[in-house]
Amino acid sequence: xxxxxxxxxxxxxxxxxxxxxxxxxxxxxxxxxxxxxxxxxxxxxxxxxxxxxxxxxxxxxxxxxxxxxxxxxxxxxxxxxxxxxxxxxxxxxxxxxxxxxxxxxxxxxxxxxxxxxxxxxxxxxxxxxxxxxxxxxxxxxxxxxxxxxxxxxxxxxxxxxxxxxxxxxxxxxxxxxxxxxxxxxxxxxxxxxxxxxxxxxxxxxxxxxxxxxxxxxxxxxxxxxxxxxxxxxxxxxxxxxxxxxxxxxxxxxxxxxxxxxxxxxxxx
Length: 268
Ligand SMILES: Cc1cc2nc3c(=O)[nH]c(=O)nc-3n(C[C@H](O)[C@H](O)[C@H](O)COP(=O)(O)OP(=O)(O)OC[C@H]3O[C@@H](n4cnc5c(N)ncnc54)[C@H](O)[C@@H]3O)c2cc1C
Prior knowledge:
Elements: E1 5-8, E2 11-14, E3 19-25, E4 40-44, E5 49-53, E6 56-58, E7 63-69, H1 73-79, E8 86-93, E9 103-109, H2 113-125, E10 129-136, H3 145-150, E11 154-159, E12 166-167, H4 170-180, E13 185-189, H5 192-205, E14 209-212, E15 242-244, H6 245-248, E16 257-259, E17 265-267
Parallel strand pairs: 9-10, 9-13, 10-11, 11-12, 13-14
Antiparallel strand pairs: 1-8, 2-3, 3-7, 4-5, 4-8, 6-7, 14-15, 16-17
This protein binds flavin-adenine dinucleotide (FAD).
Flavin-adenine dinucleotide binds next to strand 5, strand 7 and helix 1.
């Protein structure tokens, strides 16, 4: 499991101007390689390794997908690859989302849609009613909307500039949905301040919720301590990246600060 598998890129899907999905064949029958929505891989371009969520799990075709937003050196180098080129995948790692209840609200912001979209596929496939708030800066950056609609989810788009759906913050759209619906659970991934807004609301409504956190990761297998959070010391790569609200309550740095590669605090 901890040795990277060097795999051919089977297919590349251009999701938006900045995001591409890379599809790989994956052995779904192997217990060791079993992937769950919310888990992540360490992606190796033969120079560096970075954590990336699994955005697509297709047991029928035996494929997984990794959706990457080009933001810096590593991600730009992966965007330059072509179908047939190779990448290393190490994992899967971390604790994924748990499915509880029969009516669920999923909230994703930006590239945070990656892990939650795999969860939407999984939950709808099991017959669970899923509402999704998919948020981005502008219409052309909305991710996986058709895929999630085809899976049977009800999708509410939300853009900062009003080019598609509700104009404004995802948290405002979520507030209305929480007033008018009765959800058994909320699942979210996106900018941490967005997740804090959702966390506060679900606490007020007494709805169980799971959130996927991002912290700087190096080993991803719980040894190096790089992604430990204050005040619990939990390793986001092992105990997370998905945490329930009652666990987030104990993570003092949530929505306050994170650490860079050298351990220096960076405020949100
Ligand atoms: C559990 C997890 C899941 C993720 N899933 C996705 C995903 O599905 N799609 C996606 O596009 N991005 C995802 N990311 C973020 C992704 O790892 C960074 O965007 C990537 O490492 C940036 O590398 P870079 O060299 O292109 O950019 P840089 O310029 O080096 O960094 C850009 C940003 O990425 C952060 N970053 C850089 N290296 C790491 C690292 N080793 N660990 C964590 N953050 C880092 C930096 O702190 C900075 O905020 C995930 C991160 C984590 C922790």
